[in-house]
Amino acid sequence: MTKNSGELKILVIEDNPGDFMLIEDYLSEEHHALEIQRAENFKIAKTILQKTSDFDTVLLDLSLPDINNTELLVKDILAFSNGTPVVVLTGYTNKDYGVKTLSWGVSDYLLKDEINASILSKSIHYSMERRKVQHQLYESEEKYRTLFDSSPLPMWVLDRNTLEFLSVNQAAINLYEYTREEFMQMSVRDLWADDEARIEETVEENFHDFFTLKVRHYTKSKNLLYIDVQSNPILFGGREARVTQAHNITEKLKAEEKLRHSQERFKALVQDGSDLISIIDQNFHYAYVSPSVKNILGVDPEKIEGRNVFDFIHREDRDKIEGKIQYLGSRKSYQLPSYRYKDGKGEWRWFETIISDLRDDPAVKGLIANSRDITKAKVQEQQLRESLERYDIVAKATSDLITDFDVKKNEFQYSNAIYDIFGYSQEELETSKEWWQDRIHPEDKPRVIEAAKGIYERGQKILGIEYRFKCANGEYKYILDRSYVITDATGKPSRIIGSMQDITERRKYINAIERSNERLREIAWTQSHVVRAPLARIMGLIELLKNQRNNLDNIEEIIDNILNSSEELDKVIRKITIKTEEEF
Amino acid sequence: MLEVLIVDDDQIVVFIQKKMISNHEIAQNPISFSQAADALNYILEDQNHTKKKDFLILLDINMPNMNGWDFLKRLEAHPQKSRYHVIMVTSSIDAKDKEKANNYSTVRSFIEKPISAADCEKIKEISEISHFFETA
Q: What is the ipTM of this complex?
């Protein structure tokens, strides 16, 4: 038995045939498409309702022959009717009783004495309509409950006054690690990590309003979360509550932080780096110049962007750069020879540039030029060259032999004085240290080698030493060797620059003076001892003669002794004269 | 008792010194040695006697064989050295010799040849031996 669309299908539970007929009449008056079924007692009604569920309304008479308990009757019929609106028909005039049946769940109650066709029809339609609205409401609530429960966004409902949890969804449980039961014992304050005063204030100010707030929460295991809160006031089971969405932005913040770091790093590299980075387009115009140009050239990037690269390059250097750039495209990256570049003051700086061809890269569409200011190094190079030239001139100007010993290569370089002083021609020369050492006089060699240890083992920077050095003809010359040590980055000697002065003449002269001094010392000693011995005798004897004449037996002998001693003295003095006249 | 020894290889020097020593009443008969070794033997032998003497020794530095320094060295090794009073007598005193003499405890004084009357008076005033001349 199916009903047609628009047809009203009604079950009338009524034992009284007169009442049933009356109801049937009233219904027929208002409805054309109508199907009415009748149940004469509770039992039949139960059977029909169990079989058929598509009634639009059930009209129930409260006084049935097979049941006395009205409450049980109403509740059972409501249960069996399975959501179909039930309208109670009663003879009782007690209004309170009717209200009671309403509280059990019936849609309406009508007094039999007051029923007419329009009242009955209105009640039926009203009940059906209310049932429909109730059903929609139920469905809507169900829908929202599902949304709440299964939302991936953590959500909860709080008591608006106490901030205690009234409900939490699964996502919140997952995020915060508390169980639902634990949540129900907590207030949202238990989640707050800090900033309590600000949160309390916001919550209080927006008691009746929606608000958003950035807060920090702790999970149960004390992990810090950054949360974007959205909270709406609602009524929840009649209580003033708020429903809150907790958007976890911890990962997002971390990612943002990372990105910011990475951007800052990049910025630092490009802006504050000592390299000038630029992008040059097909026509050699600057498309981009890194802000570091301000530090390097004292110019704002905007002043350069758009201009031709070659405007800034020294006229004399343009050819070699152009020559190099011709090969563009054959290689991905190459280095340009150093060139001069005009800075903000119109002065020339030396630049060294690496060009990377990124014309195919849609993000660049040009050449990346990575330039470094090498002016300082260039100036140093220039100074070094001048210094070397000066050194060469000095080496030529001096009669000293200038040597340059490369420690690592064990190689001497000599100035031309090696021939002038020692007579060694280029063919006879060898450049090793051993060759040099073999030409040091054997008596001086151990001393020289010992002194050289000061350079190799004790970090001595300057060494001055005299020794004899063998000439090509086998003779020895005295030289004063003054060495200056150049060290490498690790402090080890790398080169030893030496100047060897021929001091043979001076040394000979000094030797002569030393010999002469020796002789003078001899004379002095002779004077004090050899000369004075006979003189002392003479003086002693004369003293005796003068003061002890009476005590002396043999005066003749004393006078003879005086004479002998005088002769001896004379001889000694003659000898000194001869020695003094000798050639030194 | 103080015995005076003259050690010098020059006989004229010895003659002069003997005269001066006796005339200035330092000793009546000074004994002389031309060899330092002989003088040393004489001194050491005397120390075997029970009654020990003090010796005033006028010592020349430059002598053949054992010279003055060698002689001093030998004396220095002897236990009785406090009884030996050496006066170095040399033809010329230089600072080096004086410095060298500081190493020998027996050296009391330096005299430059020839020995003078003043030198003789000074000998008597040397603190270690002055008591020998007080009564005389």
A: 0.87
